[in-house]
Amino acid sequence: MSIASHAESPGLWVLAWRRFRHDRVGLVSYYIVLLFVALVAASWTGLIASDWEKEVGVSHAPPTFLGPGAVASHIEPAAAPQSLHSDESAESNVIDPLAEVLAEIRGGKPIGAADTGIVDPLADVLAEIRGQSGSASATETQAATLLLGGDKWGRDVLKKVIKGTETSMFVGLAAAALAALLGTVFGAMAGYYGRWIDDLFNWFYSVFTSIPYLLLILSIAAVLNQKGTITVILILGLTGWTGIFRLVRAEYMKHKVREYVQAADAIGASHMRRIFVHILPNVSHVVLVQLSLHVVLFIKSEVVLSFLGFGVGVDTVSWGSMLNEAQTELLIGNWWQLAAATAAMAVMVTAFGLLTDALRDALDPKLK
Amino acid sequence: MSAVDNTPVNKPSENNPLFSIRDLSVSFRIDRTTRLDAVKGISFDIPANSTVALVGESGSGKSVTALAILGLLPKQNSVVASGGRILYRDRNLLALAPDEMRKLRGCDISMIFQEPMSSLNPLFTVGFQLIEVLTEHVGLRDKPARARAIELLREVGIPEPETRIDAYPFQLSGGQQQRVMIAMAIACEPKLLIADEPTTALDVTIQKQILDLIAEVQKRRQMSVLFITHDLAVVGEIADHVIVMRDGEIREQGSVGRIFESPQDSYTQALLLCRPRLGRRPKRLPVIDDFLNRTPAAAPDAPERSRGLRGDEEIVLEVRHLGKSFYSRKGLFGRQEFKAVHDVSFKLPKGKTLGLVGESGSGKTTVGLALMRLHEASSGQVLFDGKDLLSMPPREAMRYKRRIQIIFQNPYSSLNPRFTIGQILMEPMQIHRIGAGEQERRNMAYELLEKVGLPGTSFFKYPHEFSGGQRQRIAIARCLTMKPDVLICDESVSALDVSVQAQVLNLLQDLQDEYGMSYIFISHDLAVVKYMADEVMVMNEGEIVETANSDDIYLNPQHPYTKKLLSSIPKGWQGRTERPLLN
User: Fold this and answer.
1) What is the SS3 string spanning B547-583?
2) By the number of CB atoms within 10 A of the CB, which of A148, A199, B170, B242 ranks highest?
3) How many CB pairs under 8 A join A and B?
C-alpha cells in the first residue's frame, strides 16, 4: 500500500470494494444490476420504450421466432361474428370443462342477443367506427409478429417489459429508500436515546408488526384510496421499515457506549453530531445491506400488489400488472407476456439478491 | 514419573525433554498475494517438570506457537511449514491425524486462556462443565465424577467446593473462574499445561494468587507448564526457563537466572529496563531504540526525576465530596442503590500529576468520567476556575468541557474508524471554533502530529492503518487540539506493549513539561503510577483509602489495603526468594 504522500488512503469503503472485486458471483450480479439500472435510466428519459402504449402489432401477435401461424385464426379481430361482442368471451377453450355445456346453451335456448342470431342493431355503426379508427393503421402498420410478441391490444411486449422494469425498479428502490430512511431515523433515535424514546418507538413498532402484513397493506391502500405508483411506494415504505428499525436500533445501542462516541462527547460533539456524523457511518453497512434486501422484497411485493389489483394504475405497466394480464392470456395459450415479465423479474431479483450477499461479505465490519 | 513407561526412550529427563519443537514455521494467508510469517523457524525444548516462559510483545508469535503445539491453528488460513517438528514421545504432533490429536488435547496437553469468563459456558454450572471433561477423557461418570470434580475444585482453592460445584460461572469472581479453568485443565493429569496470559485480565491481588496456584499445581503434579506472557515481572516469579520472542523469532533463551542477570540480547535488555520499576524513576524511560543504538538513556545510572508536592502549588481543579450511585430495580417499586463512588475529595495542583490507583470495580474510572460529565454525578462539586462544573447547565459546561480532556484505555475503540486522522484532529477545533479557518486548523493538526511523533502523511490515513501505540498518540493529539488544562489518562497505557508503553509515557511527560498540564493518571498498574505521579490516591470500593506523595506511599503505606496492594505486585527475579531453582 505505497501511496503518494498526499493521496487519500484507502478508507473502509475502498477496502470493501477491493474485497468485493474478488467475488466473481457478486461482480457478475453487480454488472447485471448496472445493466438494469441503465435500462431504467434510458426508459426514464424516453430514449427507449416511450411509445409502449402504441398498438404496433395485431392483437396477441406471437413472437417473431414462432411465426404468425402460432396464433389461432379465430383470435383475429372481427374474424367471427361472435367475437364482436368481446374478444375473449367467444374463444373456445379446449381445456374448459364447461365447454360442452356452453356450446349447448349457445346452440339451444335463446338467452342473449348475440347467441340467438338476431342482428345487433348497432352492428353497422360499430363496424364503421372500427373501420375508421382501426383499419387505417391496422392495415398499414400492424405487424403480424413482434420480437417478443404482443398483448391483447397488440402492444409490443418487449417495450412493455422495459417500461415495466422501470416502474417495478422505481417502486422497489424508492420504497426501500423510504423504509430505510424511516427505519434508520427511528432506530437511531430509539437506540441512541433509550429510555422513554425507545419505549415510544417500540410501542409504535409493536403496533405495526402485530397486524398481519397483507391486511396492513390492504388497509393502507384503502385509506390512501388512490391507485398509482406513488401510492404503492408509500404503502410499501410505510409498512416495511420495521425490520430495519430493529437492526439499526440494536447497532446504535451497541455503538453508543463505545469509547469513540464517549470521546466525541468529551470533545463536545452534540447529540445529533454523534448520532449522524459519528455513529451512522459505522452502522451504514447494516443499512446498505438491508436497503438492497428490501429492494428485492419490495419488487416482489409490488408484483403481488399489482397482481391483486392494488398496485399501479391502469395507465402504467409494471411486472405485476403484466402478470395480471398474463393470467387471462394464458388461458388461450399466449405465454409470451408471462415469460417476458417473469424472466426479467427473475434475473433482476436473483442478481440483486446475489449482489446483496456479496455486499454483506465485503462490508463485513472487520475494523482491524 | 510414571511407572508404566517401560520404554526407556520415553522417560523424560534433562537430556530427553518432554517436548521438542524444531524449526517450527507458521504463516497466515491474509489474502491471495500477502502472507504473514507469524513464527519463523523456532526451536526450543520443554523439559519435564519445569515451567517454561514464552515472553514477547503482541505479534511476537508466542500464542501462535502455543496453538501449533495444541494443533488448534485455524485450518483455512494457516500454513505450517513442512520442515518443522513438534516431538512428544517420539511422535511428531504436526503429522498426527486430527482424531489422535484430539485425544492428546485435554489429556496430555491442556490449556488455560486469558479470559476465564468467555472460556466458560455461561449456561452450565461449573460442576457440569468439569464433569463433562472427566467423562470425556477419563471415563468417570455420575457419583465418582462428581466426587472427583469436588476434589479438583478443592485442589485449586475454591472455598466450599461442595456447594460451589453447582454455581454458574457468573456467580463466581474472575479469580475463581480462572481457578475453575485450571481445575478443568488439570482434570486429566496433563503432562503439559499451556497457560496463555492467564493473569492478564485479573487484578494484581488475584494475579498473585493465581500465579501461586499454578506454581503449586505444577510442583505437586510434576508436570510442565508453558507460560505465555508479556510481563517479565511475572516471568521472574514463576519460570525456570525463559524464551524471549520478537517478530516470530527467538531472540534469546536460557535459564531464568541467566536471562535476568546477564541478558545478552539487546531486545531482552530493553524489555527488562523499559518497564517502570518501583525502585527507580529515571527522567526518561529507556525505549527499545535506546538499547539498539546504545544511547545514554539506557544507562542504568541515568538521571532521576524527583516527584512530590510541597503543598504551595496553584490548584486548578478541586473536587469536593463527589459521589455517584447506580440504581438497580428491586421488586416492583423498590430500587437498590450501589455506591460506585462515595465522598471523593481531592485537589489537583497545576502542572502536576495525581495518580489514582485501584482494582477493577474500585470506582476510579467512574471518578474520571464524572469529572468530564460523561457520567452524571449524584452528588458533590467539581470546582474549576471557582465554578462548579457539575451544577452548570449543559450549554455553559460546553465552554469548560474542552479544558478537561480524557484519553481512554483502548486506542482501538476510541478513534472513529470511519474518520481520517485529519478529520479526527480537526473536529474538536471546528466544534470549539479554535483557529481562524480551515487552513489554520489544518496547519495546527500537522504541527500536533509532529509533536506526538507521527509523520504528516498520517493526516490522510485511517485509524486501522496504525498500531496501538500510534493510535494512542493520535488520541493524545486530539486532546491537545483543545489545549486542555487537565488531562485525564484513564488506563491510557494499560493496553500497550511494554516498549510502546515507555514511549507513550515519555511523550506524556514531555507534553506536561512543555504545556504545564495537570494529569489525573488512572491505572491499576502501580509501577506506572509510581513513575508518573506526584501524588497518589488509592481507591477501594468507591472510597479513597489513602492519599500521599508517591514516594511516601510506596515506602511507607499506612492503610492495610494499600499494603496488600503493594505486596501483590510481582517483584520479578529480584523478589524471588522462597522458591528454589532447578538449575
Assistant:
1) EEEHHHHHHCCCCHHHHHHHHHCCCCCCCCCCCCCCC
2) B242
3) 81
